[in-house]
Structure formats: C-alpha cells, structure tokens
Amino acid sequence: MANAREVTVGAPDDLGLREVLIDGRSVGGVWSDKELKRLLSREGVADGDPIQWIGGGGTVWPDRAGLRRTTGFFVVVGLLATSYPLFRIGMADSGNALTYGGRIAGLTILVVAVMELIAAAAAVDFWETRRWRYSGVAVLFGVVIALFCGVSVLLLQIGERFTTYTVIGIALVVWASVVLIELFKSRAWKGLRIPKNIAIGVIISTLLAGANLAYAQVYVPYVTTPLIQTGAEFKEPNVDKGAAKLYVTVHLYVRNAGQVPVYVLGSTYWIRGEPAKSTPVDKTSRSELIYDGEFVAPDGHVLNPGEEVAQDAVIEVKDPEPRKYEAITAQSEVYVIRKDRMKMTGNYENTRLTGKTLRKSLKDGDPPDPQYKFRTGITNSSEILNVTRGPQCVTVWRLGGKAPTVIVDVSPPDKRFRFDPQKPPLDQRAIERYGLSQVRGSMAQTPYPELLEKAGVTGKTETPTPTPTPPKPQPPAM
Fold this sequence. Notes:
Layout: E1 7-12, E2 18-22, E3 25-30, H1 33-42, E4 51-53, H2 65-96, H3 100-126, H4 135-156, H5 164-185, H6 196-223, E5 228-240, E6 245-256, E7 262-275, E8 288-293, E9 301-303, E10 308-318, E11 325-338, E12 342-344, H7 355-361, E13 370-380, H8 383-389, E14 392-399, E15 405-411, H9 428-434, E16 437-440, E17 444-447, H10 448-455
Parallel strand pairs: 1-4
Antiparallel strand pairs: 1-2, 2-3, 5-6, 6-10, 7-8, 7-9, 7-11, 11-16, 11-17, 12-13, 13-14, 14-15
Helix pairs in contact: 2-3, 3-4, 4-5
C-alpha cells in the first residue's frame, strides 16, 4: 500500500455536492457514489485505496438530482429569456437612438445582455459540477440584473397602457424574487473574494464616470429647450385702381435659433384690419380677419439649428378706400415638436386630408368643420420607450373661422382624439414628453392710411381724420 493515493471526500454543501481531494489537491465535486467512483477511476486511483470521509460516510448523499436539475433549468431559461429583450433593445438603440446618450445606453444594454448569457452558462456549472469558483456569484449577479430590469419596466409602465412588456416585467420580478431566495439559501456568494479597498475604488470611479456621462450627454441635451423665432413684416403695397383692390405683401418667417432640431407640424398666419375707434375707450369696434393661411412647406418640415424658412404672402384688400381701418396687423404662429425625442415613421406630408375626403372621415367627437387633418405614426427616441409606451400617432387638425386654430394630439393608434373646446389645443402629455410647443411671433402693425398713401390711393397731402379728443372731465363740486 506504499503507492496508495490519499483521497478525501468533503462534507455535503447546501445542494448536496461533496468536494473530492486527491493528495491534498481538489479534483472536483460529486453528487453520488457512482460519480465518485467515476472520478477516482479517471484520476487513476485504485479501487482499494482508502478514503477519508468528512461530514458523513459513503452512504450520505443528500443530493436530489431531479429537483436540482429542474431548478437549474428554471434559472437558465429565465436568464436566457431576460437576455433576449435586452439584446433586441440594445441592438436597436446602439445604432438608431436619436441622441448620443441613447446610443451609449444601447451599448450598455448590449453589455448587460452578454452578462446575462454568462450568468446562464454559470448556472449550468452551479447546478451541475461547480468547477468554477465564481459560478454562484455570476448567477446571483445575473438574477439581480433581471430583477432590476423587471422593476424598471413596471415603473416605466406607470400611466401607460397594459402591454406585452407589462406581463414580461411582472414575470421577471416574480421569477427573480423566487430565484434570489433559492440562491441565498445556497449561499451563492461564498466564492467571492474582493479586497475592500479595490471594491470601494471601483465603485467610486464607476459612479463618478457614470454621473459625468449622464450629465453631459443625457441631462444637458434633455433640458436644452428649442429656441424657435417666427414673425411677420409688411413690405411695399400696390393698388389695382381698375379693380379697386389693394395688394399688401407680407414677409413671414420661422427660424431655429437654438440647438435642437424640430419638426414643424403646422403653421398659420392671419392678417387683420383694426377699425378706427370713435373714442379712445370705444370697445365695440373689433378687428376684422382679412386673410389667414399657412407659410411653411412642405408639411412636417425639419427645421435644423440655424435654418430659416421664409415666404412672401400677397394679401388682397377689396375696395380699399371705403374701409375705415386705422391699422393692419399681421401675426404668425408655428407648432413644433422636438426631433431628438421622436421620429415620424410615415410620410407626414402625404397624410393630409382635405375637402370631401376629410368630411367623410369625420366621426363623433372630431373637431367641427376642420380645414385639414394630418395623422402619422411616430417612434420614440429610444427602443425602451417604444416597448413601454407602445405605438404612438401624431394627429394635427386646423380649424378655420374668425380665430384659426391648430390642434395637436399624440396618442396610441387605436385611441381616438375627442375634441373639447374647453381644453387647450395642445396635448399636455406630448408637451412634456416630446417638447411640443406653440410659438407665436410678435404682432407687426402698420397704419392703414400710410399703406394707402404708399400705394397711391390717396394723395400725399391728404391726412387721415384725427380721432376726436374726449372732453375734459368736470372738476368735482366743492
């Protein structure tokens, strides 16, 4: 027996695995007497060599193979199921997110998805051979990530519709909670050995780098507001004396003076005649709408930083001389939505409905007598927002009449917008999510008699009738 090998079989661990040492060197773990004989034969240990048993003899094998393998299969499937949506979201965002921060987030999600695959492979080792010392730690880390993903999905779903991803989030939270209980019972963290000073240094460095990146590439671009300028200016008028018409040219423009690109969903301008008042306190005279229209083309135009869109509109005033206007005013208005927070999936310009087609499509609850309607699908700035918010559509209506109005609504495709005259024309949720805004330019005003004089309708020496001065109030009686 001089050449006998020294064999030691350790006590069963939490799952029933017993570590085997030969001549003081660990050669693996076994779950049963049959596996022990196979291991010793592979290591060249003779059948008659003595075995030292620790924590129970050769009859103590507490492993329940069926339950153990079922648990391992349950964990592996859960980790693989978690990695699939992470890969899907990460691939989409890393190449197609609308912002730099979104693409960095996409790459981060891809790294997390790879870690879930590593955790799945570690789960096979943890519930089978345990040859890798840190397999339990890897599984624990992967399950914690799955729990975090499930909670994040559910938090993002607050206030949203119940979707497939709501079910996925609930399933992840329940699955991860059950697995974490099992891992804590098995003390899966036992193999982890990290010096405190290294761990603290890594954590602090990661937090500082993450905070700096989040501030510079996520927070700052998000809080930066678009700076859109619009306005109107009067140019030289002309007159057609034969047809008794006055033509006034109005220059209209919209300019992106900020750093955020936007879609111009709608534009409108109106020209009004301000009647002369008989007295300064006369409130009965109201302005008259002479003309209104649009000035940004094509519809849905992308206005990049530093870009300007301008148009000259010629306004016709019939029978100019009899009209008793004191002044003519012009004002423009545009409706924009941030391009860095959404993307149109359809051709917005070609979705315009007018005339009979629009009237036939109207249903109960739609705005009354609209001039046109646009409706197209949009996607959010990142895939994670797409899966939590679901499909969205932007709908734009323009109402005519004495007070032209544009109404913008962003909602799911199967949800109909119902017009309420008591509510603001802009969707309040879209204002917060997508930076939807209504930009009205300052009012341009020119004296009407001056326009007539420049057009040659009246002589230069002719002066407009002055507004009568109100009588001075009587002094109070003593």
